[in-house]
Amino acid sequence: MTSPIPANLAPYALAALRIMAALMFLAHGTQKFFSFPNAFPMGGPPATFTLLWFAGAIELVGGVLIAIGLFTRPAAFLASGMAAFAYFYAHAPRAFYPIMNGGELAALYAFVFLYIAAAGPGRFSLDGQRG
Q1: Each residue of 2-29: pLDDT tens digit?
Q2: Could you tell me if 72 and 112 are in contact, meaning their C-beta atoms sit under 8 angstroms apart?
Q3: Domain boundary assignment for the chain
Q4: Other C-beta atoms within 10 Å of 94: how many?
Q5: Closest CA to 25 of 99, 92, 116
Q6: Confidence of residue 1 (pLDDT cuts 50, 70, 90)
Q7: CA 88 to the chain's CA centroid
Q8: Distant-in-sequence contacts of 9-16, Cβ < 8 A, 24+ apart
Q9: Residues near 86 by Cβ (< 8 Å), separated by ≥ 6?
Q10: Are 53 and 46 in contact (CB under 8 A)?
Q11: Cα(91)–Cα(52) distance, integer angstroms
């Protein structure tokens, strides 16, 4: 059976996945550090050099780098590892199944960013412009 989407659109779909996943990931960092788009998740910004601070820094910097496609592979690999760590540290101890422990988003980020780290940035990236 053939796909209804032509194969030549795959690089554009990868770019759309990269940009949208990165912008959603970035929103977690802006929430932690700038209380945007809503209130601080823990009542205030994270204390410097705590796990939550490092998570926010990776979300903020990594989200920007992945979205614009600059140093995409290392940034996505780091973001993937951070999301996997968040899943096993904060979610997995609550329950075995991700839908029950609230960790489905962390698990999904881990695999999406792992894929981007392996596949590269796709179209519309600064990495592509740099050669």
Answers
A1: 778 788 888 899 999 999 999 999 999 9
A2: no
A3: 11-121
A4: 12
A5: 116
A6: low
A7: 16
A8: 11/122, 11/123, 12/122, 12/123, 13/122, 14/116, 14/119, 14/120, 14/121, 14/122, 14/123, 15/69, 15/121, 15/122, 15/123, 15/124, 15/125
A9: 55, 103, 106
A10: yes
A11: 14
Residues in CB range of 88: below 8 A, 6 or more apart = none
* Cβ-Cβ contacts under 8 Å for 21 (sequence gap 6 or more): 66, 109, 112, 113, 116
pTM: 0.90
Q: Give the CA diameter of the chain.
A: 54
Helices 104-119 and 72-86, packing angle to 10 deg? 160
